[in-house]
Amino acid sequence: MLALVRISTLLLLVLTASASLIPFQGKLNLPGSDLKPVPGDSPIANCDVSQKQLLILKEVDLSPNPPQRGVNLTITAIGDLDAAVTEGAYVEVDVTYGYIKLIHQTFDICSEIENVDLECPLDKGHYELTKEVEIPQQVPPGKYTVFARAFTADDKFITCLTGSVEFGPENFSFF
């Protein structure tokens, strides 16, 4: 389970060009109606789209899509950051397994950003990132939903991202 949380943290980093990575697969299971799918080959969507966001994602691709247990996942993200992201920026991440909340945690963006070979401050501008992450064979079967909101140190809204991944019982192994 800890590996899934780490992977989810990594994906958001790539997507926000400053936060964490969140691997998704399958159908979207998104809260609310204020959503807009992110272009590309992934089930990721922007949430809270009626609010001004500093990160505009142009495209996110996952390979393979859907992600597979025990197979490395390559995430490619393209987007524009409308303002610098500096020390003190943070991302609030919720991960649920079915209807059970597994994680509600706040991560320091500048501490996590090294996972995608970047460093703070992130300057305003265009970003194209590619990152490969390992999906452990031990990820338990079930549906995982991730909801993440990122903010600058002075609470300006960077982005809101959400999506789901569902791993079936096939190829599951504790060992």
Automatic annotation (TrEMBL):
<keyword id="KW-0813">Transport</keyword>
<dbReference type="InterPro" id="IPR033917">
    <property type="entry name" value="ML_PG-PI_TP"/>
</dbReference>
<dbReference type="InterPro" id="IPR003172">
    <property type="entry name" value="ML_dom"/>
</dbReference>
<protein>
    <recommendedName>
        <fullName>Phosphatidylglycerol/phosphatidylinositol transfer protein</fullName>
    </recommendedName>
</protein>
<dbReference type="InterPro" id="IPR014756">
    <property type="entry name" value="Ig_E-set"/>
</dbReference>
<dbReference type="Pfam" id="PF02221">
    <property type="entry name" value="E1_DerP2_DerF2"/>
</dbReference>
<keyword id="KW-0445">Lipid transport</keyword>
<feature type="domain" description="MD-2-related lipid-recognition">
    <location>
        <begin position="44"/>
        <end position="165"/>
    </location>
</feature>
<keyword id="KW-0732">Signal</keyword>
<dbReference type="GO" id="GO:0032366">
    <property type="term" value="P:intracellular sterol transport"/>
</dbReference>
<comment type="similarity">
    <text>Belongs to the NPC2 family.</text>
</comment>
<dbReference type="GO" id="GO:0032934">
    <property type="term" value="F:sterol binding"/>
</dbReference>
<comment type="subunit">
    <text>Monomer.</text>
</comment>
<feature type="signal peptide">
    <location>
        <begin position="1"/>
        <end position="19"/>
    </location>
</feature>
<comment type="function">
    <text>Catalyzes the intermembrane transfer of phosphatidylglycerol and phosphatidylinositol.</text>
</comment>
<dbReference type="InterPro" id="IPR039670">
    <property type="entry name" value="NPC2-like"/>
</dbReference>
